[in-house]
Amino acid sequence: VSCLINSRDLTLKEKLGQGSFGEVLKAEWKKEDGSITEVAVKILKTDALALPGTFSDFVKEVNAMVGLKHSNLIKLHGVSLSLPYMIVVELAPLGSVLDRLRKECSLTSVLVILEWAKQVCNGMAYLESHRWVHRDLAARNILLAAVDKVKIGDFGLMKSIEANEDCYVMSEHKMIPFPWCAPECLKLRKFSHASDCWAYGVTLWELFTFGEHPWAGHSGAQILQKIDQEGQRLPKPPACPQDVYQLVMHMSWSHREQDRPTFAALTKFFQGFE
Ligand SMILES: Nc1nccn2c1c(-c1ccc(Oc3ccccc3)cc1)nc2[C@H]1C[C@@H](O)C1
């Protein structure tokens, strides 16, 4: 691992919330030069890593993640590999977008949500250009560094795509985020940039509904039936502009993977909104 942090250099502070894979605390990190930085620490549930293969997955992912740097991605500082394992990352002072939207509801202006949508798209376009599939894009993994600055976090499920493959087949022991999954994810456990695009559409639906649960009350099987057999899609949120629904959400939910836009193409759409 290229970025080992010794747990004795971390002073854990208050709990920030419950993320996927484990709880998140604020911490002070004393670096070699003696300076103190405020960071966020995700304490991984060791049972999640106890399964065969996950520790090596984890180390591999962390090593690759350290190289991913973009203003709309949460920066990874390093990991502490004494038990419990801890991921040390950039602190997003305003917390998760989802919590803020649910608290503020319709007090959040559509223009602010559009700016957030554009920044998430920029971060995802960066991952796409680095051939990285996130695999768990959702509003719960979008964090706020400032009111006008969002950062994509929790690449926990993200896998690099080998040069000769353009998709990743899910292994048994990982959770599947059903309402955010494209048909091929639910049927073939196949994840790709195209399935990230589908999840991006669902993430935008969450933003424009101020944090509603997509397909609330439906089981995984019912969701698959609707999106795969019946061609049903999430309805346009009242606050969502028609163009955004038709040209971004609906396109990102094309049944055929190759009909979904790339994040590079979607960033051009948002430039039109400038
Ligand atoms: N960095 C943060 N700052 C403030 C509040 N936060 C952060 C993270 C958080 C998210 C992901 C993460 O682990 C990563 C990040 C990037 C790549 C891979 C794993 C660590 C903390 N989670 C939260 C809270 C938990 C609640 O949902 C919002």
Which short descriptors sum up this protein?
single chain; 274 residues; alpha+beta; five-stranded antiparallel β-sheet; 11 strands; globular; binds the ligand Nc1nccn2c1c(-c1ccc(Oc3ccccc3)cc1)nc2[C@H]1C[C@@H](O)C1
Query: Which small compounds were modeled alongside the protein?
Result: the ligand Nc1nccn2c1c(-c1ccc(Oc3ccccc3)cc1)nc2[C@H]1C[C@@H](O)C1
User: What is the global morphology?
Assistant: globular
* Helix percentage: 25-40%
Total strand segments: 11
**Strand pairing plus helix content: what structural class?**
alpha+beta
- Count of runs of 4 or more consecutive helical residues: 9
Query: How many whole angstroms does the radius of gyration measure?
Result: 18 Å
Q: Largest sheet at a glance?
A: 5 strands, antiparallel
- Strand order within the widest sheet? 1-2-3-5-4
Q: Give the SSE string.
A: EEEHHEEHHEEEEEHEHHHH
**Overall pLDDT confidence:** 89
Note poorly predicted spans.
Answer: 160-165
- In terms of DSSP E residues, the strand content is 15-25%
